[in-house]
Amino acid sequence: VQRLGGGEGTQGLVVAAFSCGRVVSSPAFGRWSTAKGYLATLKISIFVLMVGAILYSWSNSTIMLIFSQSVMGVGSGTLGVTRAYVAEVTSKESRTKYMAFITAVQYAGFTVTPIIGAFFSSYISDNSDNEGGFVINEFNAPALFIVVLCVVALILLHTIFHDRIPKKKVEHDKTVLALKTAEESQLLLGRCPSCIVGYLSNLTMYTIAMIVCMLLNVVTKGSIACFETIGIKTAVAQFGLDSSVAGMIVSTCGSIGVAALLSMGYIQEFLSDVQMIVFGIIVMIIGMSFLVFAKIFSIPGSWSFVLAIFLVYSIGYPIGHTAAMGLFSKIIGKRPQGELMGWFASSGSVARITFPILAGVLKGSNILFFILMVILSVSVFFVRSMDIILTTLSS
Fold first, then answer.
1. Domain 8-160 coded CATH 1.20.1250.20
2. What is the pLDDT at residue 388?
3. d(Cα 335, Cα 178) in Å, to the nearest integer?
4. CATH 1.20.1250.20 spans which residues of the chain?
5. Residues 232, 246: contact at Cβ < 8 Å?
6. What end-to-end distance do the CA atoms of the chain give, in Å?
7. How much is the pLDDT for 6?
8. Tens of pLDDT along 245-263?
9. Model confidence over 77-135: pLDDT tens digits?
10. pLDDT per residue over 147-173, tens digit each?
11. Which residues are in the Major facilitator superfamily (MFS) profile domain (predicted)?
12. Of 169, 219, 251, 390, which sits most exposed with the smallest number of CB within 10 A?
């Protein structure tokens, strides 16, 4: 961005363009997967992503850079599609485990790709001043690498991917029909805070559960987005760490988070989805407390940061967010998963846009992390209040 004459504001637009593209495309791709099947949808999305990466590699202005980022965001709007496919081919009992597996791949990508970017930056010189047409340099090499990965993905989809046509939409699962009786609805609403019963009484139990899962996705995704936005800055300004050391801590804890995701099958033998959500969010709150109350804990500054990142990146977020995603998929039940999982992914993208803006507006990381602690605490309260609704609808 700086090379093309942009500043911090332009950098924000470039990042937001990607998320905006994904917000728009996620529900659309989900709908297409239901109508046309998963294979055709994934091929189209990867092709769009490849076009966006090619445009990015040719970018010679900030406008083109922003446009190419938005195109890549559109092509990346298939999180809901891949999760829907997993939901279609797995049982409810094993669904959270396999959701965790595909999330582990995504999580690993977040951890590994910065290393790849650093490799290109270190070993490929900046030849952008050379005349004579297109040249490969440290700025466009990562985009060209994505192009290669897209070609490989298209080949694999064409040769080994087994398509599946989603089931026809049904009006209601038997569980939802059972919950529509007045007596049982009032019993479930009796477990909810009285201040919201008036609003919830006009909604079906299914809708309530969907909204709760969406909000859980927003608060967990938004919280991790804030860490991504100002985490390194906080480490440098508040705890005196070098930025490279802080980045290594985040990458290491992210790698441990992959191991936690791969262990979800074992964890769910002891905890339900609702219990894993509560556990994960509470761990995130504890992690943030090490940043907000570092002086009270009397822990050396660097260790406060390490503990916070470990609890959030390695345990709290991967377990809590993945359990919320698995719960959402189970609540959808026999309905075609694609469109609804697309909206779920889109809500997460919205959180990745709005929460970093909050991080930029608030002055002081302690204020931000304290607000996040409050939001997450309220989320735990609502989940615990509605555990019978969520558990019944997902069973």
1. yes
2. 83
3. 17
4. 8-160, 174-394
5. yes
6. 49
7. 67
8. 888 888 888 888 888 998 8
9. 888 898 888 888 888 888 888 888 888 888 777 766 666 766 766 667 655 555 555 67
10. 999 999 999 999 998 887 665 544 444
11. 1-391
12. 169
Asked if residue 299 lies in contact with residue 291, where contact means CB atoms within 8 angstroms, the answer is no
**H helix runs in 240-336, sequence order:** 243-262, 264-267, 273-292, 294-297, 301-309, 317-332
CB contact at 8 A, 368 and 355: no
Q: Give the Å distances, CA to CA, from 353 to 6, 162, 206, 223, 316.
A: 20, 34, 27, 11, 21
| Structure-derived torsion over alpha carbons of residues 257, 260, 261, 265, reported in degrees to the nearest 10 | 180
Name residue, tokens 């966006």.
52
Cβ distance 351 to 376 under 8 Å?
no
Place of tokens 């969406």: 214
Whose CA is closest to 88, among 134, 43, 42, 33?
Answer: 33
- Whether 67 has a pLDDT exceeding 50, the answer reads yes
Distance, in Å, from the CA atom of 259 to the CA atom of 308, rounded to the nearest integer, reads 18
Q: Which fold has domain 174-394?
A: Growth Hormone; Chain: A; (1.20.1250)
Which residues lie closer than 8 Å to 217 by C-beta, 6 or more apart?
321, 324, 325, 328, 344, 347, 348, 351
